Amino acid sequence: MAMQPISAPERIETAPSAGFMQRQFLDYRVPVNLNAFWSFGLLVAFSLAVLTVTGIWLSLYYVPGPRQAFDSIQYILRNVPFGWLIRDLHLDGTTMLFGAVYIELFRGIYYGTYRNGRSAVWLLEVLRFFLLLCTGFFGFVMVFGAASYASLMIMAAHLGALGRILLAGYGVNPATMPRIETLHLLAGLLALGVAAVGFAASRAAGTANPDGIPAVGEADRIPLHPYYTMRALFALVVFMFIFAIIFTFQPNFAGLHEAAPGTPALALPIDPLPPWYMLGFHGLARAAGSFGFGTFLTILAFLLLAALPWLDRGTVASCRYRPSYRGFVWVLALDWILLSFGAALPPTHIATIICEAATIYFFLHFIIITPLVTGFGRTRPVPPRPGMRRFIRTEQV
Amino acid sequence: MAMQPISAPERIETAPSAGFMQRQFLDYRVPVNLNAFWSFGLLVAFSLAVLTVTGIWLSLYYVPGPRQAFDSIQYILRNVPFGWLIRDLHLDGTTMLFGAVYIELFRGIYYGTYRNGRSAVWLLEVLRFFLLLCTGFFGFVMVFGAASYASLMIMAAHLGALGRILLAGYGVNPATMPRIETLHLLAGLLALGVAAVGFAASRAAGTANPDGIPAVGEADRIPLHPYYTMRALFALVVFMFIFAIIFTFQPNFAGLHEAAPGTPALALPIDPLPPWYMLGFHGLARAAGSFGFGTFLTILAFLLLAALPWLDRGTVASCRYRPSYRGFVWVLALDWILLSFGAALPPTHIATIICEAATIYFFLHFIIITPLVTGFGRTRPVPPRPGMRRFIRTEQV
Amino acid sequence: MRRLLVAALAAGFAAALVAPAHADQKRRDPLSHFQFQGLFGSYDKATLQKGFVVYQTDCASCHGLRLVHYRDLRGLGLNAQDVAGLAAGAKVPKAMGGNGKPKLIAATPDDRILSPLTPAQAAKRFNGAVPRDLSLAEAAHPGGARYIYSLLTGYRPAPDNMLMLPHHHFNTAASGMQTAMAPPLKAGSVTLANGKKLGTREMAHDVAEFLAWTADPSHDNRKSTGYGAMFFLLFLGILVYAARFTTRRERP
Amino acid sequence: MRRLLVAALAAGFAAALVAPAHADQKRRDPLSHFQFQGLFGSYDKATLQKGFVVYQTDCASCHGLRLVHYRDLRGLGLNAQDVAGLAAGAKVPKAMGGNGKPKLIAATPDDRILSPLTPAQAAKRFNGAVPRDLSLAEAAHPGGARYIYSLLTGYRPAPDNMLMLPHHHFNTAASGMQTAMAPPLKAGSVTLANGKKLGTREMAHDVAEFLAWTADPSHDNRKSTGYGAMFFLLFLGILVYAARFTTRRERP
Amino acid sequence: MALNAGIERESGAAPEAAHGEPRRDFLKILIGSTMAVGAAAVAWPFLDYLGSDADARAQGVVDVDVSPIAANSGITVRWRGKPVFVRRLTPKQLAAVQATPMKDLIDPASFASRVSPGGESWVVLVGLCPHRGCIPLGNKPSDPRGPYDGWLCPCHGAAFDAVGRVRRGPAERNLPVPPYRFASPTMIRIG
Amino acid sequence: MALNAGIERESGAAPEAAHGEPRRDFLKILIGSTMAVGAAAVAWPFLDYLGSDADARAQGVVDVDVSPIAANSGITVRWRGKPVFVRRLTPKQLAAVQATPMKDLIDPASFASRVSPGGESWVVLVGLCPHRGCIPLGNKPSDPRGPYDGWLCPCHGAAFDAVGRVRRGPAERNLPVPPYRFASPTMIRIG
Ligand code: HEM
Ligand code: HEM
Ligand code: HEM
Ligand code: HEM
Ligand code: FES
Ligand code: FES
Known about the structure:
Number of helices of chain E: 4
Largest sheet of chain E: 3 strands, antiparallel
Order of helices and strands of chain E: HHHEEEHEEEEEE
Structural class of chain A: mainly alpha
Oligomer: heterohexamer
Strand order of the largest sheet of chain E: 1-9-8
Number of helices of chain A: 16
Shape of chain A: globular
Shape of chain E: elongated
Distance between the termini of chain A: 68 Å
Largest interface: A-B, 63 and 63 residues
Strand content of chain E: 15-25%
Number of strands of chain E: 9
Radius of gyration of chain E: 31 Å
Helix content of chain E: 25-40%
Bound molecules: protoporphyrin IX containing FE, FE2/S2 (inorganic) cluster
Number of strands of chain A: 2
Strand order of the largest sheet of chain A: 1-2
Helix content of chain A: 55-70%
């Protein structure tokens, strides 16, 4: 049997081709009833892309040394064409990223997107959140000003014996910064990887929707393009606008206020204010009162968040149809803000009390409130199919 | 409509699960007639894994400075526990990787694996090869001894105006090494990415086989495990054995012989010998005689290699069944070795002539010989189905 | 859920607006107010130039600006010749020739503005205190430019009950109310082109703005880039909103 | 196609075997032969220790070993006390206290073995030539340890027709047949514990092996690890081959 | 081991499967355990690498021979990049710091918490002012020691007593005491 | 634009598609071009960033005022990290190097190839010996210049003539001439 030569276009077909992209992104069908919360996936992806590109650009000039780190960033800001722009985009990009990530987590809790066979997606989302926090921590240590130095030493103290591996020794030494840079990059890339796997897993399990029920029927779903692409584009423009505002007026919003290189010849403790997106966890630690217990509470918080699909004992997924749980979800969000606020205060007695109260409520929510209220709380009738709320009642949620 | 709570195992299912891995790796069915050449995919993957892990480990101590680079590698070798081991594994891992990559490319040319709708796979394979060469180049510049320094300056000269971007200036300056490190990492990760996409594309197009015909029927394929896993494991052990030999006796086989840090206060030209896997390309450049033309020939070589699916005009894919082309493929391999040999000689007249002759033949092979011989050369009957050679004749190929 | 977005937007704006407003409490002393900190404010080139002269005359003998090169002074509106002249006036240690030791030679525009004192010299001269590098001094203190202004204008006779360190000076703005730095500004030490001599408060104001520039030289660029981006996005946003509207109308 | 694999294997072995054999041409001078370069060769601890004493006695006054710390000498078989003693005998500049200048104080085992001369001092003393650091000297020359041996034993009276540089010495192994280094080895300068004094050729051999160690201190570890890995893989390979064989028999 | 599952599943389909079983089972276990040993041998260097390198280990612990230090004088050593003061107190100084009432202290700390039991006449302190990090004066004979016969910060005038407790601002915390112990009566091991 | 294709394809299915078309087409073009402008505006800084930074630019080109250099003397400047020799030759020296027969040279190079047209009395050389990189002597008045009245390498004795051509080994190549030109009769621009 002899073969016929094959024409070129057919041979190319197997590549991740234009057709593949079209099927995955333009023709992909999503539930009819998605709301603005479902734009945040794109916004997270956009922020990650900005951070990755600007991060690579920064690393072209970044030198990981105990003194060189700080100086090389100053060099970028002052001597590299548009260095200030790239650096500020990277820094402010973290605010945008974590803004989107926090809202996406809230969406998950509110609409129960971890239900309907999507628990693996939720686990990946929590893992991504954790990896991004690690990336952020290593990132701001990379600046290696006085506050970064203090944060690093505090983190090393939290980690106990592992801290010595983090520092590559007993204190900052020439091997510390290369290690931090590697970890920043590794955690960032792992987060990107987990985000990609999460995206695929979400597609495989079927995109969630605000009604919290599966969207399986043909009529329950519409093509992504143009119905959601235009909306997503609009959300992106609004997001970029907020980005521009922060960039213009508060470029250092998520930064430690660094004005001198970090050095062991610094009298600790100095009290660095962690970036806003870490304050909540720092509040847990402040409530804990000791390094070891603080680390334990932080880990516990992540585990409980990850366990949500199993803690939720309800028959209904979306808070649209479980009014009693809905209130508690909002209180949880406020509790987290309070916790962050308490951690941002100077270390006074009041601040500790705020943190303690908020911490206790936080754990209460997951351990007691969630199983009880989802299991026994009031629910409302769920629409027969996604987007058919009008068939039940007209009130907006 | 209310939902039932879902039991845990079902919820997990969507993750890249054990079941998924089983389907993709153990139960996946491959053609019955694969030979030892088909172990090289695994060997490439193994080498890449070794390089990635050891590379990450090295970067924990590597400092990208014009002086610090060399010193930090010496520090790893002398002061970090098992640093010498990790570093030598990374260095010797490149020899293993390129050994496997060259053999895989040879397999492709010999058995025509770029046929049967697999041209995209081939393009990815050539791209991966290119990216790996870039990674290797940036990697040995990272050592930044005198020979690395000279190689970098030579490469910058090859690239003309782009060379200034490579160096971040007119010569080596504090921004050069961070850039090289970033490029090493980026090229390495891109190569990993391309390798992964290539793997998926190859699976999608159907694994090739030495008979060069599609293996589509149920009986044409057998499960990967245990029939090929054991064979692959054996190949891996042999591969690792060769690795151990090089590691023990020739740890610097793929290294530039560096004994002093690179510095602009060096009288160029010094003549560094590039690592063996780059010699062929350096031979092309030596034959070209000028930087610009050398760059052109190198690019041309890659383009021709990539164009093989279109240069091949034959009706038969595998050299098993095209005896006249088979000889030329072997001559091409010998030609490449000759070219490498010519480039390794000191820059004498003889060396230039060897390189010139080998270069001319190299391009002749792709531009003239391949279209002619595949189009008009003698062929033998192809078996009706993969592995059915015995139904044609008994002679071994 | 659109309300949420709007709320976020509003919060962002509010945050942006509050910060500068904050810096403006107490306007009793107009020189303690810095125009560039306003929402649309930018550095005043004339002020920066005067500020640099003050730095050179009264600060440079102790403090360096190690993150600033002479060439960067072109950002103040100076021309290449002025900058070359300024650089040539300073001496910096450089290693030349074979393996020789560094010699003090005239700086070029590409040299950094370094302190003339080594840390050891400074510690000796000021009994252990070291005049810090001023490149980021404005960013180092929460008060920013206003703090520098207050420090430079805060010298007073020490109250009788104050325990003064040897060679220290009472200063209302200094941490611990005393500082090893003698009052640096000498009224009249800087004369403008028009013959006018600057008073110490004006000098303090100008050098404070100059140090704000050294700490954040891209401030003006950032604001103009940011405003440009906002206008662009506003325009694009309106277009996309319109397009989205027409798309929605057709939804099956 | 299995033949190909076997061929590769054979080629690898051949390459490994050829290299050391190469280094062994001309065995006329037994001291120019280095045991550790053999296939199973490892450094001789006694030789290394003698080599270090030669280094200290005759080389350390000009050349440093900046990549070697005193603590690393424990790799020669010295104990912690010996090493501490050796370190204490050397003076290194260290910055202590506040902002003080570096002072020369006794080294600790964690200090590097530095040259006592600064490059500037050396250039002055040797009219421009600088004694290089010897940490990697053995790796810097294609001949390796043998080159060092030849250099140290290569001093001869200069032939009459040779144009000698001022203060240079004729040496058959030196590049350009002359070197700024005066013959460093003084016969009898090193006395062993048993009272025996080393001759210059023995000294040259020992210090050359010592410098091979400074250039590649992990040589012995690498060989033992490598052999271990090979034995392990041989064992595993036999097992897997057997398993593969049984699997193949069942193939459908 | 995953290999196991695959072979079991497939063996049903293979004609000669039952025949080779016992020998193969033994082989599989042997291969599996050999590979496990190999993996562990490879993992060990990778983990050990992550610990501290030789310089870091050297930096972590500093031994100070205190025998040459006379009463009422001190030395400065460097430990993990920081200056550390070691001073020997006179009985008069000891009495003075022990007599200080707690309520006079800005950052109250007992005498016992500032010294090592059995070595009460030695004070060991990290010599960085908790205010902004200057190195306080008082460790050299020529240095001023401030009004409390301890250390005086040259930057903004913080004053410390003879066991390093802050007695006058702007600093608000005492000089930190590093972890240390007496390795022998004349040897302090810091770290 | 890919957006385009999607809308076209789907519009058949949507009931009111035909109605909104013209306005939407215009909008789409406007949006597309606005986004293209935006993308270009964002790309520019990222590309500009990759070029040389301020220090690199400063390092690249060095201007040397040669007016203070007397005949038969020279100076050393630093350019891209390398020492560069600038020497002014006397007519006698010029005559000597021009008279040297090519066959006497180890690395033959004409006089004209070693100097800049119009500035023949100036030699500009990278001051690194091509043998192993030592800095040859001869640029300071007190230095020996070797037998060829040029430079003498202190390391292994390579000797160079007054235009930097190697006349005695072990070096095998001439001292390199950096790229330079006369920016004015008294100003050489190297780089
Ligand atoms: C994967 C690609 C990334 C690379 C190559 C990268 C690279 C860098 C570099 C070189 C710096 C130091 C320069 C500077 O501070 O301005 C840095 C800082 C930083 N990075 Fe990244 N980064 C990446 C992704 C991320 C991500 C995903 C995050 C968010 C979690 C992040 C958060 C940070 C933070 C918070 C800083 C400190 C910013 C500052 O205060 O200036 N990076 N990054
Ligand atoms: C990432 C940036 C962080 C920074 C800059 C930071 C900063 C600080 C500072 C300044 C203190 C001492 C002052 C105070 O009590 O407020 C502190 C204490 C503490 N931190 Fe953090 N922290 C960070 C992250 C964390 C994290 C992620 C944890 C949990 C694992 C944590 C747990 C603690 C604990 C347990 C204490 C002791 C609480 C106390 O004494 O009040 N911190 N941290
Ligand atoms: C993607 C993960 C990788 C990382 C993080 C990495 C990291 C590093 C580091 C830090 C060095 C400098 C230390 C040294 O030379 O010993 C290095 C050197 C090197 N790398 Fe990689 N590498 C990676 C992958 C690769 C790959 C895939 C290749 C093969 C193309 C490669 C080839 C080299 C080479 C040739 C050197 C110079 C080795 C020497 O002469 O010592 N690397 N790499
Ligand atoms: C990557 C490691 C490389 C090294 C260490 C290297 C080294 C050298 C050296 C030492 C020379 C001058 C001596 C001679 O002619 O042999 C040279 C010349 C040259 N190289 Fe390379 N090269 C490398 C890669 C390349 C590549 C990838 C190209 C093609 C783009 C190339 C093109 C050339 C050309 C055109 C010349 C001038 C040929 C001549 O004058 O004979 N080289 N290279
Ligand atoms: S730093 Fe010591 S008092 Fe301010
Ligand atoms: S380096 Fe100049 S002669 Fe050897």
